[in-house]
Write a structure and sequence with these properties.
mainly alpha; Growth Hormone, Chain: A; 2 domains; membrane; MFS_dom; MFS_trans_sf; transmembrane
């Protein structure tokens, strides 16, 4: 048992590590133009620093329940920090793009393990009636970190080289590592089992499927691309079937049969798509369409980030008072309205208008992503929470990766016309339709007033 002071130090160290690593997901969006010049690559190639990052995360997330059940959480957390440090150092010293991409891959391994794990730990050490508020705090960490990534990146890039951004991560993670040595505890009950390596191999299908989607916007459909798609679909089906057949599956997919958990997974995924796409696309829109510098494009994300942070705490308390369904409906309506405004007025919005719309979208995210995650976890037995959070975060990252890939495809395809802004116009319309689907799911959600 931990004392109150030890618990606070534990949670602080855990969330600070998560916050810093989460920043790394979105920090490069503001640096894309600079990195394209440095490595002499085009936009679809440099985008793999983000898409590839999220793909590798998706491979590691299903492994997190096994790691939590079989390893000391303190040792696992320290190892994750060390892997992230190594990857960051590789990026700083990278002489070419492939080495930088490999470094990002190591960072993604660390983040992919930590993201589902920290949520499982928080919900395990928190009573059911307090989870909504605690997960609101977790949402504050994840959401505000994603939104703050381009802000920090823009400020650093305005004064020093792009390597300075990664020196920042290197220093902060080193300090967290020292704190973790003293403050981390083994809080998870262990249940040793054999790691299903076959399922891990099958999970590589995630990379193949999203690689195919990403290449659709930059290349013609060739025989190798078709083969990648066919093999990936076969492996994906095999992965799903195996989870229902083996005694100790990598992911306990049976939890998707639990009422409200399946809709909760989709809703948190749709909300995450909006957050990550805004975080990636907005800096590009600011710099390419509105012609502002990286510093301004980063600072323009400050107001939405602040609002997101505040509303993440509010949403947890609101869910406790009025129920998850009403909270989720509020969020989905905000998401639909935000994308609709972007679509209708995309030819006329200035920086201030874009900021206001970003506030609506990111505010909507606060009322959907973590409340939906908490609602899903509350519907599961305690021993299934690690599997539930792993499934939620895996689907969330898959949908996020798909969202970024589709956004780039639509923007590039539309940019082939007379005006580059047309691509952004079409992209805004696509995501508006997507969030309307999410709103329908929230409407048909079973009333949870008796949580």
């Amino acid at each position: 048992m931990m004392t109150k002071a030890q618990r606070k130090a534990f949670v602080f160290t855990l969330l600070l590590g998560t916050f810093t690593m989460s920043i790394s997901q979105s920090s490069l969006s503001t640096a894309y133009p600079t990195l394209m010049k440095f490595f002499n690559v085009d936009a679809p190639t440099i985008q793999w620093l983000t898409t590839g990052f999220m793909l590798i995360m998706c491979i590691m997330m299903p492994v997190s329940p096994w790691l939590l059940n079989n390893l000391s959480f303190k040792k696992m957390y320290l190892t994750v920090l060390a892997i992230f440090e190594l990857g960051t150092l590789m990026i700083i010293l990278a002489p070419n793009f492939p080495i930088a991409l490999l470094g990002r891959g190591l960072e993604a391994v660390a983040v992919g393990i930590l993201f589902p794990s920290y949520q499982s730990v928080l919900m395990t050490i928190t009573a059911k009636e307090g989870r909504a508020e605690v997960m609101g705090l977790a949402g504050l960490v994840m959401g505000s970190a994603l939104a703050c990534g381009p802000i920090i990146s823009g400020i650093i890039l305005n004064y020093i080289s792009w390597q300075g951004l990664f020196w920042f991560f290197l220093l902060v993670i080193a300090l967290i590592f020292v704190s973790a040595i003293f403050n981390m505890r083994d809080v998870m009950e262990r249940k040793e089992s054999q790691l299903d390596f076959i399922s891990v191999i099958y999970s590589l299908s995630f990379i193949g499927l999203l690689y195919f989607v990403n290449e659709l916007g930059t290349k013609q459909l060739t025989l190798p691309l078709y083969l990648i798609l066919i093999v990936s679909v076969i492996l994906f089906i095999a992965f799903i079937l195996r989870q229902f057949r083996v005694k100790d599956p990598l992911l306990q997919l049976r939890v998707l049969k639990v009422a409200n958990f399946d809709i909760g997974v989709l809703l948190t995924g749709f909300a995450y798509i909006s957050l990550i796409v805004v975080t990636i696309v907005y800096p590009l829109y600011y710099q390419r369409i509105l012609h502002v510098n990286p510093l301004v494009s980063g600072l323009a994300l400050v107001p939405p980030a602040v609002l997101l942070s505040i509303l993440n705490l509010v949403s947890g308390r609101l869910a406790d008072k009025v129920g998850f369904k009403i909270t989720l409906l509020i969020g989905m309506v905000m998401l639909v309205v935000g994308w609709a405004i972007l679509f209708i007025f995309s030819y006329h919005l200035n920086v201030l208008g874009m900021i206001l719309v970003a506030c609506i979208i990111e505010g909507g995210n606060a009322f959907v992503m973590m409340p939906a995650t908490t609602m899903g976890a509350n519907s599961l037995p305690e021993n299934m929470i690690p599997h539930g959070t792993a499934i939620t975060t895996t689907v969330r990252q898959l949908l996020g990766s798909l969202g970024v890939a589709l956004a780039m495809i639509i923007i590039v395809a539309g940019g082939h016309t007379l005006s580059e802004i047309i691509g952004y116009h079409y992209a805004f319309g696509f995501f508006c339709i997507l969030e309307i689907v999410g709103l329908i799911l929230a409407i048909i959600l079973r009333d949870d007033s008796k949580k």
